């Protein structure tokens, strides 16, 4: 039986920072130095934060909550929305097994514990997943060849 655990990444955890930076570079070509610098600015118990999902002690997925995402640079009116779930990544060999959903549910709970009322995201690939997890579409837009949906999750109902 598989054991799932979650770990809030600390800014001095160089091993985790390098791992996440490598994943983000391989998936989205985000320069590793950029990811590491961003993650090193995190402060325990506050936003932004990054989570690792561990399967039998081995990291297999990550994601976090951020105050700023790149979409805001292109669509400034979206700055009214705060606290963005972003960069949710699962190892390709582990996709389709529910780890992304488990990670998101953990992040939702952590956000509630921090007192956040709502969180936001944008996606062009996983709207069905987020809808299943209780997210609501707020806006739709086309950017390049991508149909993007901006979504919101109310954490207290």
TrEMBL record:
InterPro entries: Acyl_CoA_acyltransferase, GNAT_dom. It comes from the Bacteria. Gene3D superfamilies: 3.40.630.30. Residues 4-156 form the N-acetyltransferase domain. SUPFAM superfamilies: Acyl-CoA N-acyltransferases (Nat). PROSITE patterns: GNAT (PS51186). This is GNAT family N-acetyltransferase. It comes from Niabella pedocola.
């Amino acid at each position: 039986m598989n054991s799932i655990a979650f770990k809030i990444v600390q800014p001095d955890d160089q091993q985790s920072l390098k791992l996440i930076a490598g994943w983000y570079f391989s998936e989205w070509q985000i320069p590793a130095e950029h990811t590491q610098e961003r993650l090193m600015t995190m402060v325990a118990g506050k936003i932004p934060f990054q989570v690792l999902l561990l399967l039998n002690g081995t990291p297999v997925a990550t994601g976090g909550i951020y105050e700023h995402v790149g979409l805001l640079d292109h669509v400034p009116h979206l700055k009214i929305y705060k606290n963005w779930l972003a960069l949710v990544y699962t190892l390709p060999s582990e996709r389709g097994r529910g780890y992304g959903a488990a990670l998101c549910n953990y992040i939702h709970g952590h956000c509630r514990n921090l007192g956040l009322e709502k969180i936001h995201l944008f996606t062009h690939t996983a709207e069905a997943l987020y809808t299943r997890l209780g997210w609501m579409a707020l806006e739709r837009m086309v950017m390049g060849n991508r149909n993007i949906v901006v979504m919101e999750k109310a954490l207290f109902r």
